[in-house]
Amino acid sequence: MNINWKVRFQNKIWVTGFIAQLFILTELLLIGAHAAGLTDFHVTEELKDWIFAFVNVVFGLLATLGIIQDPTTTNFADSTRALKYIKPK
Question: Where are the domains positioned within the chain?
């Protein structure tokens, strides 16, 4: 499977999901590092709530402004044509 990452990062919906996954990955790595005794940093419920609220506000604002929505594709998937070119048309 050949994935054209340059085109992927130009899809705003994909980038939004990717950033959300990075936050989840970071949280899991911090929790794991704390559990293994590699760091003293502890992810508290208060910190989680603040991060979730911040991310929700940012993405909500972007969605309200229409920045996240990609009107050139149907649903949340790229078209087969879009997967084949290097630069969006």
Answer: 5-84
